[in-house]
Amino acid sequence: MSQTALSIKAVDKFYGPIDHGVHAVKTLSMDIQKGEIIALLGSSGCGKTSTLRMIAGFEPVSRGTISLGGREVHMLAPVKRNVAMAFEGYSLYPPLTVRENIAFALKASRLPQAEVDKKVAYVAKLLEIEDILGRYPSSISGGQQQRASLGRALIRDADLHLLDEPMGQLEPQLRALLRGRIKHFIKERGLTAILVTHDQTEANALADRIAVMEGGVLQQFDTPQMIKERPANLFTGTFVGEPPMNVFEASVETSESAVSFGLAGGVKLAYAASDFSPAVRTALAGRKNVVLGIRPYAVRRTEDGVPARVAVNQWLGDQTHIATDFAGATLVLVEHDRTRLAAGETVGIRLDPAALHVFDGASGKAISHGQELA
Amino acid sequence: METTSALEKVLRGVALTLVVLFFMFPIVWIFLMSFQTNETILSIPPSVIFTPTLENYQALITGKLQTASGTLDIAFMKNLLNSVFLSVSSVAIALVLGVPAAYAFARHKFRGSEDIAFTLLSFRFAPPLLVLLPLTQYFQWMGLSNTYIGLIWVYQLICLPLILWIVRGYFEDISADVEYAYRIAGHSWFATFRKIALPLAGPGIAAAGLLAFIFAWNNFVFALVLASADKQPVTVGALAFVTASGIQYGQIAAAIVLSITPTLALALYAQRYLVEGLSLGAVKG
Amino acid sequence: MTTLQLQNIVKRYKSQVVLDNLSLDVADGETLVLFGPSGAGKTVLLRLVAGVIEPDEGRVIIGGEDMTDVDAEHRGIGMAFQNFALFPHMSAFDNIASPLTATRSSKEAIVAGVGKVAKLLKIDHVLSHHPKALSNGQKQRTALARALVGSPPVLLLDDPLRNVDAKLRFEMRLELPRLLAAQGATVVYVTQDYKEAMALGDRIAVMAKGRIRQIGTPEDIYNAPADIEIARLFGDPTINLLDVTPKAAGAGIDVELSGVKVALPHLPASLAGRSLVIGIRPETLHFVEAGTPGAIPVEVEAETPLNEKTVTLVRVSGGREVLVSRPAGTPGPVAGTAHIAVDGATTFLFDKETGQRVAAAGQSAKTQGAAA
């Protein structure tokens, strides 16, 4: 299993002259194991699409190497790399029906017609496009086109499947189901896949590991769980997770017996020294300004907590989102039951030290997560 | 890999040079001719080495044309002024009439609006001569032949459809929501037209105006038939150089240089707007 | 008092009926959300209220006054557009000020008014910028500020959060109720996002094909959807729908799912034998130990985390797929065989033919058809 499928080594991408053009991807190195689903996550312009296009071969690599299954491919034409791709803009062939579009991906493999039909039928059932197989791309909706395009990529036996924003246009009612099915499909066949997305929900839902990119730099490359629990810096901390992490600028004071954080509006969060490991206490000692982060679902309501005023209470059917005025900012809580709190009510807020993320005030680099040093 | 080989670069340079030469040659040649006498122009083989003379320009500006058979009076400067006056007034009137009409066609689809708009455009399809014969008669009855008003009126056949169709496209490219937003903010439709639609279509209107100006300036046949010497523009006036004693190539060249100078200057000045205007549709939204 | 009434509105484009005899009342100070798929007629309806489109039939009554034939500029309405519709050649300040310049307010009043709303929306530092120089979030706030600045009694918001990223959308979703409450305006809010609809609406009108299919509080819609389509539109992950034929069981009925009986005591025995569809919301399903009474054996296909929840796709015997969702961090199976339990009382039954929900005793689906 632990066989490297894709290896990216010190890859740079410049648009324009090397070292003087736009530096879109900065010294990126990543190893992807066979059978893994990887998400390249970031906002537009973060370098994720350039990376994908370099892997696919649509964009030359300015510096560094990309190898696929041990062979260097970054000088090869796209067709020689054995990579399947679903494009963000679908790129379905207009004169072909959906069925022909999907089957087209199998042309090179010279399979008998019966085998092709079987495969197409299977993928079509998976993606709920059986009833539109005979239609032409121009006569189906965006969501259906996206599913057809996904089908064309998934049906191939390739060393690597690249999916560019594969689910952005999907009908919301189908999204959860198709995510489950596609993940199952990829895992069952042991395919290796990279999906590029700006939607952290999608990355979390599908990926084994997420590569968070910003400004052409890989910020963190880890499992969804680790990114959630141990974000490397303030950027990943706030980018991944919905609702986003609550953050507060704070001053910090440490003594033999206590650790306390001073927030805006005179709010003081006092903890026993034992709430943090000695290493964390040492790291905090002598610092002045930090940024505190806490995920909305980790915020507790207790009678004796810091008082906060409920500003908005929004019930979404299966979750309640509560925004409170806390320490001169907004603190969001997520509860899984229906919480009946009216705007204007006061609640007591407790921020458990175990759920507290501390970031450096200037660089945004993580200092500690709960008890542990980052 | 997208590295270009040295050979590729050289070939690309050669190809570009050839294209530039092909398009620029006539202009350069005319420019050179305008500084030569008829004799040097007609010498065989032609030579690029000559003593430049300002004689041609002098003749044009003073209005005295020296030919082998004596001195001829020409009205070139008057023609140039006519051209400026005719073109500017025609475009101005076409803009005043055409821009609001274009807005109406763009924003208010009514029964037959498409047909009317197309009919207006179809004026551009008809050969001018088709219109000219009856027009000459009408104009004579109405006392409009050989008047500026008559010419400007006829020039609307050139300018109005052009402006109407180009500007309509620009108005259609403005999101209706932007205008709705201004209306809902409490402004009348006329204020919305003035403060939102006009400024946003500005580059397009400028581009259309410029094109209309060039077409008006270059028009030949309307003025040839409907105007006599004192109302003629340069395009027709240049005929005077075809004299009984031969064709005055030098003066023609100088006349051409003088007559394309205003449009060229205008085009260069407005290039930024023109490009912006003509590509506005591509980046809407 | 500014109420908004639409009476028997009909709007056609060519031969297509976009709004089909639609009537709607919005109370003073209420936020009514128009929710529905694209093409349902939501945006057309909003423009009719704004006065930039005229209805073919019907009346638009604002604050008790018939405004059907009144021009847009005299209706006193504020509107924010999905694509922001900012004036690209004007600064953010001039954009926001445009409703004030129309009323010929004094210069001081304009500066004060724009300043106040800009501060409220946290864009006071970019007022001199042109739209081109604004970020997407700032554009959206500028558009909102322009709608709010004149304190219009009726506010129309056409999917204003659609074109901003998820984080900003979430932020604004929490901020909007406060802004709207401070304004005290009667609000019609259009969205395609059910979460936005539930979070912001005092009431939600679900639209489809030019008609209102159901109108009610978020609770009404989520807990008593009028039909299958509406049940599918609200909830993420989407509600599980399985064909069933109930059997009588005492005063109530029960249905069989993968050979396991699920009791629905709240539904009448008269439903027995009919072809129905059972709707089970993913969050009402729970993983249980094998051997628990009523446990249904399933194969786990894939686990897909969804924000603060974990969604598991499972397959019950017979091949039918079911989505189960639970709070993130709670234990659950990742692969292999597991068991789930259904709480019959939280399920819905729908008629297979018509899609209408089969009402429980003493509970009636609040629907408002075109005829109502």
Account of the 3D structure:
The complex is a heterotrimer of chains A (374), B (285) and C (372). Chain A has 374 residues and is of the alpha+beta class. Chain A has helices at 48-56, 98-104, 113-126, 142-154, 172-189, 200-206, 224-229, 234-239, 278-284; strands at residues 4-15, 22-33, 37-41, 63-68, 71-72, 83-86, 160-164, 193-197, 209-214, 217-222, 246-254, 258-262, 268-272, 289-294, 300-315, 320-326, 329-335, 346-350, 357-360, 366-369, 372-373. Helices cover 23% and strands 36% of the residues of chain A. Chain A starts with a strand and ends with a strand. Chain B is mainly α and 285 residues long. Chain B has one domain: MetI-like fold, CATH 1.10.3720. Chain B has 13 helices and 4 strands. Chain B has helices at residues 6-33, 38-42, 55-62, 76-107, 113-122, 128-142, 148-173, 176-184, 189-217, 221-226, 234-237, 249-269, 271-279, and strands at 64-67, 70-73, 242-243, 246-247. In chain B, the strands form 2 sheets. Chain B has a two-stranded antiparallel ribbon with strand order 1-2. In chain B, strands 3-4 form a two-stranded antiparallel ribbon. Chain B is globular and about 70 Å long. Chain C folds into 2 domains: 4-226, 3-Layer(aba) Sandwich (Rossmann fold); 233-351, OB fold (Dihydrolipoamide Acetyltransferase, E2P). Chains in contact: A-C, B-C. The A-C interface holds A 43, 172-177, 179-181, 183-184, 187, 198-201, 204-206, 224, 238-239, 241-244, 296-297, 311-312, 314-319, 321, 323, 330, 332, 334, 336, 343 and C 165-167, 170, 173-174, 177-178, 181, 194-195, 198-200, 218-219, 222, 232-238, 281-283, 301-309, 311-313, 321, 323, 325, 327-329.
